[in-house]
Write a structure and sequence with these properties.
215 residues, mainly beta, eight-stranded antiparallel barrel, two-stranded antiparallel sheet, 2 helices, 15% helix, 63% strand
Length: 215
């Protein structure tokens, strides 16, 4: 098992074991404070379309890891993070091949619509920028499908990403919190095809667990 999935399992177990003592906490963390966090998980949905033509992606999971910081207010948290999501795979005629990994840097606006001394539930919007590194096989298959040379296909594409997240957070104490969330991430960019561009749209579903600390 790779380190990132192992960390995801460890944090998920920590979330379960810490829920009981956290539920007995008397007060929530203070507002007007800065926090830092790490997050890890798995992407298990990967839908890709090129100029409205779907690529037959598979359900193979891909690891995720990220770091971030935010400022906590009474109900809204504002911050930013950077994360890396593994490649994911698509189905060829007789084999599977990598689609390509992505890095995104995003701002985050988190609304804790349920807030209790033990923790709460939240929704979050994260607009940002993304870099996708396309695998050589994916570039080759895309080039063949549109009738151009491999050299005409970009190795990397820069684009815009937006995700919507729903999560649960548990306060271990006034300085430590653990969380679990589900996110849908949509990334829009372009692939070069000679003098023209191909529209590239990618939607990924990820499950993430996180550890947040107040310095």
């Amino acid at each position: 098992m790779s380190p990132t999935p192992s960390l995801a399992v460890a944090l998920a177990l920590a979330l379960a074991t810490l829920s009981a003592p956290a539920a007995r906490a008397r007060t929530a963390p203070p507002t007007g404070t800065a926090w830092v966090g790490v997050r890890t998980g798995l992407a298990f949905i990967d839908s890709v379309s090129i100029d409205a033509s779907s690529v037959e992606s598979t359900s193979d999971p891909a690891p995720l890891f990220g770091v971030g910081a935010f400022w906590r207010t009474r109900r809204l948290d504002v911050g930013a993070f950077v994360e890396h999501i593994g490649s994911g795979r698509y189905q060829r005629l007789a084999s599977k091949a990598r689609i390509g990994s992505q890095i995104r840097a995003a701002a985050a606006l988190r609304w804790r619509y349920v807030e209790q001394p033990w923790g709460g539930m939240y929704a979050r919007l994260t607009p940002g920028l993304a870099i996708i590194r396309h695998s050589d096989t994916f570039r080759l298959d895309t080039a063949d499908s549109v009738g151009v040379e491999l050299a005409d296909m970009d190795v990397r594409s820069f684009g815009f990403s937006m995700s919507f997240d729903l999560g649960l957070e548990v306060y271990v104490n006034s300085r430590v919190a653990v969380s679990a969330e589900f996110s849908l991430i949509n990334t829009v960019t372009r692939l070069r095809r000679g003098a023209e561009d191909l529209d590239y749209n990618r939607v990924r579903g990820v499950f993430v667990v996180g550890l947040e600390l107040r310095p």
